[in-house]
């Protein structure tokens, strides 16, 4: 089975360990949001295409912080893939598995993680060559233990997962300890209400907390 593991994106996901999943209602919030996340140690952002400001938010972050990995989330149709690439997105994510979107991302050269939650969906994603998958909605499905059991038949293939959906700082460690988990998707890091209220300090603290957790779990120990 010929699976795609987009590099250097996978390497960066493994290193950062968490992606801040955000919703922006006003474009002016894009730059201070990215700055707060960077100060907290998170340099991967998935900006979901759920508002009219989303693509402009991607453009602004890309221009102001070119080293940030800025992704487009909630990619539901092929036309959105092209729009995200033109806005400057460096990766894409979807809640489900749409073969047309997978192909559009491949045609654009956009690293892409479709969403899965069952063995049948994982099989279909593998048939499309996807080796990096979004596991959604993680917590309501049964948490890290459910992820381990559901994905175990495919572990010999080296498939990697980004769990997202209901995860909190308190449950994040259980996912990060799973060998198949390359990074978490965290909507708790910068929730919509904190962005709307301009609470950049608390967003920075949330980012720092998950950054410290990832570092403690994944940094090599010295003798």
Number of strands: 9
Query: What's the story with the biggest beta sheet?
Result: 6 strands, parallel
Output the number of helix runs. Answer: 11
Averaged pLDDT, please? 95
Strand order of the largest sheet: 5-4-3-2-1-9
CATH class: Alpha Beta
Q: Give me the strand/helix succession.
A: HEHEHEHEHEEHEHHEHEHH
- Give the low-pLDDT segments: none
Assess the beta-strand content as a share of residues. 5-15%
Radius of gyration: 16 Å
The CATH topology assignment is TIM Barrel
- Terminal residue distance: 40 Å
Q: Please identify the structural class as seen in this structure.
A: alpha/beta
Helix content: 40-55%
Architecture, according to CATH? Answer: Alpha-Beta Barrel
List the helices and strands and how they pair.
Elements: H1 9-16, E1 18-22, H2 30-40, E2 44-48, H3 54-64, E3 69-73, H4 78-87, E4 91-93, H5 99-108, E5 112-113, E6 115-116, H6 119-127, E7 132-135, H7 138-141, H8 143-151, E8 160-163, H9 169-176, E9 184-186, H10 192-196, H11 200-218
Parallel strand pairs: 1-2, 1-9, 2-3, 3-4, 4-5, 6-7, 7-8
Helix pairs in contact: 2-11, 4-5, 9-11
Q: Could you explain how this protein is built, in words?
A:
This protein has 223 residues and is α/β, with parallel strands linked by helices. The protein has one domain (9-214): Aldolase class I (TIM Barrel, Alpha-Beta Barrel). The protein has helices at 9-16, 30-40, 54-64, 78-87, 99-108, 119-127, 138-141, 143-151, 169-176, 192-196, 200-218; strands at 18-22, 44-48, 69-73, 91-93, 112-113, 115-116, 132-135, 160-163, 184-186. The strands form two sheets. A six-stranded parallel beta sheet has the order 5-4-3-2-1-9. It has a three-stranded parallel beta sheet with strand order 6-7-8. α2 (30-40) runs parallel beside α11, α4 runs parallel beside α5 and α9 packs parallel to α11. It is globular, with a radius of gyration of 16 Å. The model has no long low-confidence stretch (mean pLDDT 95).
């Amino acid at each position: 089975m010929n699976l795609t593991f987009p590099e250097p994106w996978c390497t960066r996901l493994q290193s950062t360990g968490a992606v801040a999943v955000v919703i922006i209602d006003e474009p002016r919030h894009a730059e201070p949001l990215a700055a707060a996340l960077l100060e907290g140690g998170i340099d991967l952002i998935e900006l979901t295409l759920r508002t009219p400001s989303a693509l402009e938010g991607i453009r602004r972050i890309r221009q102001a912080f070119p080293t940030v990995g800025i992704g487009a989330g909630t990619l539901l149709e092929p036309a959105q893939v092209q729009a995200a690439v033109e806005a400057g997105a460096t990766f894409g994510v979807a809640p489900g598995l749409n073969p047309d979107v997978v192909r559009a991302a491949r045609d654009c050269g956009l690293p892409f993680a479709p969403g899965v939650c069952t063995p049948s969906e994982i099989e279909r994603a593998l048939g499309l060559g996807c080796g990096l998958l979004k596991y959604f909605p993680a917590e309501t499905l049964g948490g890290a233990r459910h992820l381990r059991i559901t994905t175990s038949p495919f572990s010999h293939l080296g498939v990697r997962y980004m769990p997202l959906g209901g995860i909190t700082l308190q449950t994040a460690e259980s996912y990060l300890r799973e060998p198949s988990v390359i990074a978490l998707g965290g909507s708790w890091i910068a929730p919509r209400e904190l962005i709307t209220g301009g609470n950049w300090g608390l967003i920075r603290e949330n980012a720092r907390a998950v950054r410290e957790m990832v570092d403690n779990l994944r940094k090599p120990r010295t003798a």
